Amino acid sequence: MHKLELRGSLLYLKGSKQTISMTEAHNARKIPIELQPNGRIDPEKSLYNTVIVDIDFDSLESKVKKVISDAGINIEGGRYKRPNKGLAIEWLFTVTPGFECDYLALYKESLKWLRQWLPSCPIVYAVIHFDEADPHMHVVMVPLDGKRLPASKILGYKGVSRARVIDLYEQVGKKFGLSHPARLTGAAKMRAAELTIKVCERFSYRNKLGKMWQPFVMAIQSRPEPFMDVLGINPSREEEIRT
Fold first, then answer.
1. Per-residue pLDDT for 22 more than 80?
2. Closest by alpha carbon to 109, among 98, 99, 117?
3. Cβ atoms within 10 Å, residue 157
4. CATH topology for the 4-176 domain
5. Which one, of 153, 185, 168, lies nearest residue 114 by Cα?
6. What was the pLDDT predicted at 227?
């Protein structure tokens, strides 16, 4: 079962990695060493890379600074001048290896979802890369909240990340035949497996599978999520698991 995955990272003005300027250089394929033979990037396919939101500035860094300045925030002084202050977030949308679909449609839908999920945060750059093993999308966002830049809060921690990827699945992934991102554990996993087995019995799978029924049950008990996804049982809804 394939999933639509989403990871985010903070971007800084200065440093040895994860800077806004280095992010632009990588995504625009301006780093020669990355284009050498036997690397992850196939330069012959780079022409297929698709920019969805263009920078339209002399640099991505300049665009980020302009958006922040227009919001009435001064990054030249106070807490925002700290070298470890994240001024942007880069989101990476990927699918698990081997999945095939209309990637342009998938990632445009994902970008639309991101705008709705974080409506106060301007998207300053978005590009789909088709020149690596699996097509994926990079999105750079300015984490605005009024006249604040709560980058770490918007990026979120475990609970926020889980809610985010589940909503992405519900709004986008499901339409493209991708599976639910949740992985159940403990009592929730046991109850989910029990419910899934009961649903399978209603479909008379026990009689149809014969000797294969027990291995089938063991597979459900080991990993109920893919079976729940196919049967339309949503593991994010606790009332369904408790039924």
1. yes
2. 117
3. 9
4. BirA Bifunctional Protein; domain 2 (3.30.930)
5. 168
6. 87
Q: From CA 150, how far away is CA 108, in angstroms rounded?
A: 26
70, 147 Cβ separation under 8 angstroms? no
Query: What beta strand segments (E) does the chain contain?
Result: 4-11, 50-53, 88-95, 123-129, 136-141
pLDDT at residue 233 greater than cutoff 60: yes
Residues found in the chain: 243
Query: How many C-beta neighbours within 10 Å does residue 197 have?
Result: 18
Domain parsing of the chain, residue ranges? 4-176, 186-242
Residue type, 182: A
Locate 94 and state its tokens.
Answer: 């990927």
pLDDT digits (tens, 9 = 90+) for 60-91: 999 999 999 999 999 887 777 787 889 999 99
